[in-house]
């Protein structure tokens, strides 16, 4: 799919929120805080038909080409919560998004959050995130107009409202991708680590963003090293095995203080393996080619197969392991191509501009899709280990 440089920004700048945070625009007056007691301030809240009440039906394609349909049902009364912050998706024209729910926000929770409703109550606040337009300005070298402090403050306020009005002592998983993951890193540091609420933390899933760790910890929060561990952190950025991070990549890079990016593979934890050991992925790929944002129409998932469901799962096709190589630490994803297998030997998920694949972005657009089934299963496993009935 042909894309101009402006189109590239709409696809590729999801992870540049960290760059924008150092270039926050000067504000003449502090914007008024959002009122998170208003239902319209939330993308997803329990007990209502909203952006998370969306079809998650999946076509399962086996290695022999046989297919079946997996239906989806939200849990009736889940005993724990999931608090999610979405990545950079806003197509609003300003430096920060407004609080109106658009198709971009609806699409991303369809891809990254709605499936968790099978095991937890899902909360997803709208927030005035740094927009694609602002990050495009950074990429074009014309300055930054996005206020990352505003974006963080909104999520902090939403979290405070959730704790005061909805949490009621319930255990919770924090999860986010890209800009959302960056915001959650700040929330973990400022509002969770060392605070009483840390005791309620089942886990944090910080995906598609470098999480600098020291001695296997982010602050006092350790990386998860087994599926039954709680109060720990899962984090990774993903690249194809055949296309590891190039020297210019921002993802997976050891930071200026020498702290390596953390990498934890949920699939490996569930398989009882170390994250550096290969494990099959339970991926849920969009039949429409969507990831964190819209992408190219995917290639056929199998010969002579027409997919009528929103998602596709192909057991055994993908596997992954965490790799530490040079300055980079990342999830290395392998497509287990087999000439005898009628399924595709390739998957979509790269950032593509015209004929050029931007290898420094890896599989950023489908970071979450790649391990969606594993993340949901891990959430349930960790919740039970925490003591949730």
Could you please describe the fold and organization of this structure?
With 389 residues, this protein is of the alpha/beta class. The chain is 23% helix and 19% strand. The chain has one domain. It has helices at residues 5-12, 17-21, 103-112, 132-139, 148-167, 179-192, 266-270, 367-370, 372-386, and strands at 42-44, 58-61, 67-70, 81-85, 121-125, 172-177, 201-207, 217-218, 221-222, 232-236, 238-240, 279-280, 285-286, 311-313, 318-325, 328-335, 352-353, 356-357. The strands form 5 sheets. A 6-stranded mixed beta sheet has the order 1-5-4-6-7-10, sandwiched between helices. Strands 3-2-14-13 form a 4-stranded mixed beta sheet, with no helix packed on it. It has a 4-stranded mixed beta sheet with strand order 11-16-15-12, with no helix packed on it. The longest helix has 20 residues, at 148-167.
Keywords:
389 residues, DUF3089, AB_hydrolase_fold, signal, globular, 6-stranded mixed sheet, DUF3089 domain-containing protein, alpha/beta, 18 strands
Helix-strand category: alpha/beta
Radius of gyration: 20 Å
Please give the count of helices: 9
Percent of residues in helices: 10-25%
Tell me, what's the shape?
globular
Let me know the number of strands. Answer: 18
Can you summarize the main beta sheet?
A: 6 strands, mixed
């Amino acid at each position: 799919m042909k894309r101009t440089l402006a189109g590239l920004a709409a696809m590729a700048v999801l992870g540049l929120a960290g760059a924008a945070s150092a270039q926050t625009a000067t504000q003449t007056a502090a914007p008024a805080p959002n009122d998170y007691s208003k239902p319209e301030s939330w993308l997803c809240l329990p007990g209502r038909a909203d952006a998370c009440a969306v079809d998650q039906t999946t076509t399962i394609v086996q290695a022999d080409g046989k297919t079946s349909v997996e239906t989806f049902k939200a849990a009736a009364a889940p005993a724990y919560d999931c608090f999610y912050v979405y990545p950079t998706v806003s197509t609003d024209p300003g430096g920060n998004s407004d609080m109106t729910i658009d198709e971009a926000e609806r699409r991303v929770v369809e891809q990254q959050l709605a499936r968790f409703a099978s095991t937890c109550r899902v909360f997803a606040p709208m927030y005035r995130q740094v927009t694609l337009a602002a990050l495009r300005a950074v990429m074009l070298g014309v300055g930054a107009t996005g206020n990352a402090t505003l974006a963080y403050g909104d999520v902090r306020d939403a979290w405070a409202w959730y704790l005061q009005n909805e949490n009621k002592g319930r255990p919770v998983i924090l999860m986010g991708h890209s800009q959302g993951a960056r915001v959650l890193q700040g929330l973990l540091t400022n509002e969770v680590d060392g605070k009483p609420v840390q005791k309620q933390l089942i886990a944090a899933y910080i995906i598609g963003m470098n999480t600098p760790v020291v001695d296997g910890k982010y602050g006092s929060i350790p990386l998860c090293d087994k599926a039954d561990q709680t109060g720990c952190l899962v984090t990774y950025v993903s690249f194809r095995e055949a296309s590891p991070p190039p020297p210019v990549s921002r993802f997976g890079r050891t930071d200026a203080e020498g702290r390596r990016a953390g990498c934890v593979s949920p699939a490996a934890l569930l398989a009882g393996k170390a994250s550096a050991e290969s494990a099959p992925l339970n991926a849920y790929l969009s039949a429409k080619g969507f990831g964190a944002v819209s992408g190219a129409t995917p290639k056929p998932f199998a010969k002579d197969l027409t997919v009528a469901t929103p998602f596709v799962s192909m057991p055994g096709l993908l596997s992954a392991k965490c790799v530490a190589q040079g300055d980079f630490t990342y999830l290395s994803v392998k497509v287990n191509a087999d000439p005898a297998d009628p399924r595709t030997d390739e998957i979509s998920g790269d950032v593509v501009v015209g004929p050029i694949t931007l290898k420094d972005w890896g599989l950023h657009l489908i970071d979450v899709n790649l391990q969606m089934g594993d993340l949901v299963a891990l959430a349930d496993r960790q919740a039970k280990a925490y003591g949730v009935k």
